[in-house]
Amino acid sequence: MSAHEYVERFSTRQRIEHLFVMSLFIVLALTGFPQKFYDAGWAAAVVSLFGGVPQMRVVHRAAGYGLLFATVFHFFFVLLEVVVRKARLSMVPERQDFKDAIHQLRYYLRLESTPARFDRFDYREKFEYWGLVFGNSIMVGSGLVLLYPMLVARYLPGELIPTAKIAHSNEGLMAFLVVITWHVYNAHFAPDIFPFNKTIFTGKISKHHLQKEHPREFERLFPEDASTETAAAPPTAPPPAPARET
Description:
Elements: E1 6-8, H1 12-36, H2 41-49, H3 53-84, H4 95-108, H5 123-147, H6 149-155, H7 160-189, H8 199-202, E2 204-206, H9 207-213, H10 215-221, H11 223-232
Antiparallel strand pairs: 1-2
């Protein structure tokens, strides 16, 4: 199998969605953190780039509406594909994901000789995905409460408004830290995909990396290649027995 053979992993729509959400995330961070950390020296410099606080708030709210649109758009097409194309809900956690997580942890602790064999998406990717879903829901919901406080107070308890302010601020900071410290590294700069994973931008993954990172999906897509590789592989020697203490 040539290392230069590629298969499509993400569709054009999915790549555009990712680029759109990534751009919105950057804009929301640039226009939101100066309002949270308004007394920091760098905050004034960022505010000046937007021409002042009122202008920056307009951009922040526009990006927030964009995030709302992106979330609705995403779930509309996911449900449409499931209904029309009978696609699998491959991001829904399954019992196997919990087994894989335990197996992978045991592998990191050297209690297993081989890593877990993942399908199209592993437990880490599903965790990130649903974290994004719930995080977006909190950000959009709390943002709407802060944007229309008088309307909210007319029908709901007024205590919801300061609660929304705390939730919006803290969830935004947590999302930023998770993306910087977890997502960017694991999705693009981890040692096994070094120097840079471009799959989400090109939509393609090499068959070599697909077999390595998602062997169960590889076997489902290329059963003949998988059986050939298995037949050609030398038998694995059992691990040596631990020395008996005397």
